[in-house]
C-alpha cells in the first residue's frame, strides 16, 4: 500500500489480512485505526508514533507479547481494544492517569496486574 502519510481514518476490520503490525499506515494525522478481526501477528511495536490517534482497535488478531506502556498513556487515545489476542505482561496501575483513555478492553489475553483497594 505504500506509505500513506495523510490518512485520518483506517477501517480494515473483518478481512483476511496477515503479517506484522502495518507500519505503513503510520500517520501524524491518523485518528482512528481499526484493523480488528484479521490475522495480524507478532508484537505491537514500541516505536509506533500516532500523536492524533483517538481510537485503536486491534481485537481478534494474533498479536503477542507485551503492550508498550506508552500506548496506554498516549495523549489523545480514548478507546483501546486489545481483546482476543495472545498478549501478556503486566498492566500498570497508572493506566489512563495521564491520558484521555476512557475505554480499555483487554478480555481473553494473559495480562497480569495487582488491583489495589484504593
UniProtKB/TrEMBL annotation:
Keywords: Leucine-rich repeat, Receptor, Repeat. Transmembrane segments: none annotated. It holds the Pfam family LRR_8. Belongs to the RLP family. InterPro entries: Leu-rich_rpt, LRR_dom_sf, RLP_Defense_Trigger. It comes from Noccaea caerulescens (Alpine penny-cress). PANTHER family: RECEPTOR-LIKE PROTEIN 1, RECEPTOR-LIKE PROTEIN 14. It comes from the Eukaryota. This is Phytosulfokine receptor 1. Signal peptide: none annotated.
Amino acid at each position: 500500500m505504500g506509505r500513506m502519510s495523510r490518512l485520518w481514518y483506517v477501517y480494515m476490520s473483518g478481512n483476511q489480512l496477515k503479517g506484522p503490525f502495518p507500519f505503513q499506515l503510520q500517520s501524524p494525522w491518523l485518528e482512528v485505526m481499526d484493523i480488528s478481526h484479521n490475522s495480524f501477528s507478532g508484537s505491537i511495536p514500541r516505536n509506533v508514533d500516532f500523536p492524533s490517534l483517538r481510537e485503536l482497535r486491534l481485537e481478534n488478531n494474533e498479536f503477542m507479547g507485551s503492550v508498550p506502556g506508552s500506548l496506554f498513556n498516549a495523549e489523545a487515545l480514548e478507546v483501546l481494544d486489545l481483546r482476543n489476542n495472545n498478549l501478556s505482561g503486566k498492566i500498570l496501575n497508572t493506566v489512563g492517569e495521564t491520558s484521555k483513555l476512557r475505554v480499555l478492553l483487554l478480555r481473553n489475553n494473559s495480562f497480569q496486574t495487582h488491583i489495589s483497594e484504593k
